[in-house]
């Protein structure tokens, strides 16, 4: 009997394509405004700002060390889907600035849009058994090994990212960026429940 909770290959492809595409569009908004964010994407954004390197290649490279932990902690299926999602997002993040231009975008509105679009992108990826890699994998690994809560690990990392951002951006810009990160987390917290949605 077929598992009704399991997504078909076509459904997975659509979900991952949507998630990666919307995440790349959200990063286009973020970097257009010179804002920052948390997690692995935030680290890649800061490296991009500090070096002048493109976000896409940096994000792809930053995620490479995390795949082994993802394989050990969650499995090959998750890692392969995540690798595809990260690769697609990285590629699209390089071309979106050539496809999309903003004549005027209020930074606060842009931060909220970034958060909402990123949140929906991550929800799509989670529901199809993928992610955008990075810190979340390490957080789960440390939780398994030490009992230290994954949420605290992610929070500590984000605090460090935003503190580091103050060396590259002014306080108002970092504050507006924090609003965007808050919206991302609220979208996920309200809409992603393992007992209601099964990602396979």
Automatic annotation (TrEMBL):
InterPro entries: UPF0750_membrane, YitT. It comes from the Bacteria. Its main location: membrane. It is found in: Cell membrane. GO terms for cellular component: plasma membrane. The chain crosses the membrane at residues 16-35, 41-66, 78-99, 105-126, 147-168, 174-191. Pfam families: YitT_membrane. Keywords: Cell membrane, Membrane, Transmembrane, Transmembrane helix. It is a multi-pass membrane protein. This is Putative 5xTM membrane YitT family protein. It comes from Albidovulum denitrificans. The lineage of its organism: Bacteria, Pseudomonadati, Pseudomonadota, Alphaproteobacteria, Rhodobacterales.
């Amino acid at each position: 009997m077929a598992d009704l909770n399991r997504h078909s290959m076509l459904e997975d492809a659509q979900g991952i394509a949507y998630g990666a595409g919307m995440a790349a569009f959200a990063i286009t908004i973020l970097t257009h405004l010179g804002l920052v964010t948390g997690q692995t994407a935030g680290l890649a954004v800061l490296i991009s700002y500090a070096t002048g390197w493109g976000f896409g290649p940096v994000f792809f490279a930053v995620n490479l060390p995390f795949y082994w932990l993802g394989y050990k902690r969650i499995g090959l299926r998750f890692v392969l889907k995540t690798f595809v999602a990260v690769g697609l997002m990285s590629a699209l993040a390089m071309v979106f600035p050539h496809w999309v231009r903003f004549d005027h975008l209020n930074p606060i509105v842009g931060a909220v849009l970034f958060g909402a679009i990123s949140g929906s992108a991550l929800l799509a990826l989670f529901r199809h058994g993928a992610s955008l890699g990075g810190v979340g994998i390490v957080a789960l690994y440390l939780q398994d090994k030490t009992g230290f809560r994954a949420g605290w690990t992610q929070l500590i990392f984000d605090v460090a990212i935003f503190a580091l951002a103050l060396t590259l951006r002014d306080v108002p810009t970092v504050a507006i960026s924090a609003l965007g990160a808050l919206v991302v987390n609220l979208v996920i917290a309200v809409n992603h429940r393992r007992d209601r949605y099964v990602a396979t």
